Inverse folding.
């Protein structure tokens, strides 16, 4: 089987945390990453607008040769997954179902808290996905966390104070004993140490990015299960990347590595307007 | 002279602080307000992208009958004013020149601090406009303040802490004795009480929104200087508004009044893609 070509789509940089998780599981693949940075953030936009943008991005990645599309954006998944699936000609995996599945498995008392952007929370996508798995959920919008991560205040006292306020409100109203905190935004894995510090001690943290990477890997199970001889490993080789952004490529090269965990040498500018 | 029709453009809601200032000086006018909410924030986007968006918005307002265009967005003014002026067929007033002019008048020791978004600061538009007036400027990007205002944390301890950190960095490196703080973002007038509290005691605060409203009013000096008889006042009457937004009108109706200071009964959705 040939190396798979995996298209990863996000409104900006956050989806790079999903790409990072994918690289750990499926290193020998071609990755196309599309960040719609000219139109981010999606988190405060309406369903109609997000769906239109997301379908355009999905078409672009398919045109570039993606054999599978990973919607590495909670807002786009929550608001537009169905429309992307309808518009696409290849399999589409969003971040909500994998995150919900991992949460249902991790929760002993079937009570969870989900944190995410305004739009993700307003869509109740996680609430519904978890309810169908027997888990009741308290959803909490945390609109300040993305700007704090992008400011680089990852382990900053202000960010800790903001997280404490948000989590204090989230683990309340009968959800004091919720035992899972689901990170429903791809920026939040960077704040994992801070969430561990500020969430109640009994809480397990589930990261949608990781759960999604595992589901994508499962789609390539046959590929992975081929016996990995030395010559096969050599033929497959290292991951290859193409990065596309709708806004400044300089900014992408500067901010992206914070999420991906290694340098991004080259980014192509794309204009989806035409 | 007939009632003037004034087009006000911003990436979102912030420009409503400029409209608010205009209403106090020129109440008897027709106002067209365009908020490009589907593509906000402009503050983190490149000059190319911002210019393209701003020119589209300017054309829309002209088509709607605007006799003058107010670019009530610091980022759009800083990055795209020249291109908007070239594309427009009516006078265009941005927020940078009025803000710089008021700052130069207010500063005794010709040293000022400007706070704004990343893109406004990176453009150095205020720096240049103030330098040509003999004022040296320390520019400080404050990317967390817009999200804090939009979260509604106007007089919140977290916002105060963030303002203290930003202003501490701004009034440093030889700018400890700067005597004017120029609010170079239309969201910031809502934080004026907090800036007053956190800026050094000797500092005067200049608000670009107010300065811009005065410059627009000056363009209609003839109109204003007609003797205001009772029948003229009646004929001219109250302000009339049309609000346009590229994203959710519901969100605009909900958030807008926080900036404008009174309710927004009706907003028309506009799609600039076509």
């Amino acid at each position: 089987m040939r190396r798979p070509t995996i298209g990863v789509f996000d409104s900006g940089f956050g989806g790079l945390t999903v790409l990072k998780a994918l690289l750990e599981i499926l290193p020998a693949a071609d990755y196309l990453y599309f960040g719609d940075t000219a139109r981010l953030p999606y988190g405060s936009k309406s369903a109609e607008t997000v769906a239109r943008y997301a379908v355009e991005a999905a078409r672009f990645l398919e045109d570039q040769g993606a054999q599978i599309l990973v919607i590495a954006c909670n807002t786009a998944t929550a608001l537009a997954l169905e429309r992307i699936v309808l518009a696409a000609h290849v399999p589409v995996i969003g971040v909500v179902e994998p995150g919900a599945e991992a949460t249902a498995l991790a929760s002993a008392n079937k009570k969870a808290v989900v944190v995410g952007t305004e739009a993700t929370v307003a869509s109740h996508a996680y609430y519904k996905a978890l309810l169908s798995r027997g888990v009741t959920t308290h959803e909490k919008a945390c609109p300040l966390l993305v700007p704090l991560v992008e400011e680089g205040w990852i382990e900053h006292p202000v960010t800790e104070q903001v997280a404490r306020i948000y989590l204090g409100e989230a683990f309340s109203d009968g959800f004091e004993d919720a035992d899972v905190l689901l990170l429903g935004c791809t920026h939040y894995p960077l704040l994992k140490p801070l969430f561990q510090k500020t969430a109640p001690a009994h809480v397990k943290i589930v990261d949608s990015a990781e759960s999604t990477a595992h589901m994508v890997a499962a789609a390539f199970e046959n590929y992975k299960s081929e016996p990995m001889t030395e010559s096969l490993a050599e033929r497959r080789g290292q991951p290859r990347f193409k990065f596309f952004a709708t806004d400044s490529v300089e900014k992408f090269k500067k901010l992206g590595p914070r999420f991906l965990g290694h340098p991004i040498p080259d980014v192509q500018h794309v204009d989806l307007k035409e």
Summary: The first helix of chain B runs from residue 16 to 25. The mean pLDDT of chain B is 91.
